[in-house]
Design a protein that fits this description.
The chain is an alpha+beta fold. The protein has 13 helices and 7 strands.
Length: 425
């Protein structure tokens, strides 16, 4: 009997251990699953952030077509209809606000915003569906801009053609149009829009048409700035337009600056090798000369480079030039520079007057170039050598004279057998 109880107790303990192990495995699997989900979410989020960053930095919006920009403003306009609809609907849902809203005009205004929402999305569909049509590409930007301006003008009339929200939105639309579209598109909408604005102000001022027909007479005849509903309405109407404009302006400004930096970099670099071009070399040498700074010029010429182009083609020659430029770049200090002087010639500007340091840098470059192997095919690889001419700036010399002395030293290096360094004394 005691033995039977002991066996049952052991079985019970084993079952509890097995159950505990299963529970631990379940929690482990759950934790592993949660970790995987967390990592996946993090990757997805990082992907979105990277995509947004690339969009902000690249000139995708700045260089996009007028049709693409039309799609952008139509989507913004369609979303703005939602804002107008929600604002007036929930405002009227509040019993206290009903006294400030013209109930006879209220339902018509709701229907108008619903129709406008579908109209704009329909125009977006047309732009996307027929994006390759020359007619759509040419005329849809005009139609989109004029339609958007007309809608905003009508909405501005509904809440008061001279209200702060209407005037501010008018200014924002002009600025946004001028930075997004060409002048002819902008002025095709701006001129009639301005005429309509002035006409509505004139007619409403002389009570030939009602002023702010969406609002009740009780609101229009009150002191507006003391009316909480009116103040909040102006803020709700204008703030989304303001922030949308700021975001677009910021994106355009960031992309413009990035493009300017890219253009500036391209104008300074040799397109093949990525080192500085001749113009930058001359500019920096002139600057050093004006500051009377100590510097040395090292002129490098690749030995028998023409034969490489002739035997293996210019693509191999281009590859050699890129590799040599990389070798030179990796052996200079932070305040030195490398540039392509022309053809197979490179020039290094070393901001030191100590000959031992200059020779050490030049010799390091010469050895690395000599040790480089350039694979032509599976059975053939070649090596190349370079000759170096060194010249150190001395008081009274122009930078042209320094380069000329380096060129003379380079000529001596080539005459004495190439693949060596010579200094102009």
């Amino acid at each position: 009997m005691a033995k039977s109880k002991k066996v049952k107790l052991e079985l019970t303990i084993e079952k509890k251990k097995s159950c505990a192990e299963r529970i631990n495995r379940s929690f482990s699997i759950l934790n592993h699953s949660n970790t995987k989900v967390g990592r996946m979410r993090k990757r997805i989020w990082q992907s979105h952030v990277d995509s947004l960053h690339r969009f902000m930095l690249t000139s995708s919006l700045l260089n996009s077509s007028n049709l693409s920009k039309s799609v952008l403003i139509l989507i913004l306009g369609a979303n703005d209809f939602i804002k107008w609809f929600l604002w007036i609907y929930f405002s009227n849902a509040n019993v206290q606000n009903q006294q400030w809203i013209n109930q006879e005009y209220y339902l018509a205004f709701l229907r108008y915003n619903i129709a406008g929402f579908f109209l704009f999305w329909g125009m977006v569909w047309i732009c996307i569906r027929f994006k390759d049509s020359p007619i759509i590409q040419k005329y849809m930007p005009y139609i989109a801009v004029i339609t958007l301006c007309s809608i905003y003008m009508f909405n501005g009339y509904c809440v008061g053609i001279g209200s702060p929200a209407t005037i501010a939105a008018y200014v924002n639309l002009i600025c946004l149009g001028l930075v997004l579209f060409t002048r002819d598109i902008v002025y095709s909408a701006l001129i009639p829009m301005t005429i309509a604005l002035l006409a509505l102000i004139f007619l409403s001022t002389y009570q030939l048409i009602p002023y702010a027909p969406l609002f009740s007479d009780a609101l229009n005849q009150s002191i507006l700035i003391y009316n909480t509903f009116w103040v909040y309405s102006m803020l709700i109407i204008y703030i989304p337009i303001f922030f949308a404009s700021v975001v677009i302006f910021e994106i355009l400004l960031l992309q413009w600056r990035n493009r300017e930096n890219l253009v500036n970099e391209i104008s300074q670099k040799d397109p093949l090798t990525g080192v500085f071009n001749r113009r930058v070399i001359d500019r920096d040498l002139e600057k050093l000369h004006q500051l009377n700074s100590s510097y040395a010029v090292v002129l490098i010429d690749l030995d028998h480079f023409k034969s490489i182009n002739d035997r293996f083609g210019h693509d191999v020659g281009d590859h050699v030039l890129r590799r040599v430029a990389k070798v030179l770049n990796t052996n200079i200090r932070g305040n030195d520079m490398v540039g392509r002087f022309g053809g197979e010639e490179f020039l290094m500007i070393l901001q030191t007057s100590y000959l031992d340091q200059i020779i050490e840098i030049a010799e390091r470059c010469r050895k690395q170039i000599e040790q480089e192997y350039f694979v032509i095919n599976d059975n053939l690889s070649i090596q190349i050598t370079a000759s170096f001419g060194i010249s150190i700036y001395q008081n009274g010399m122009t930078h042209e004279q320094v380069i000329k002395r380096a060129d003379q030293a380079l000529y001596v290096a080539k005459e004495q057998g190439r693949n060596q360094i010579q200094c102009a004394i």
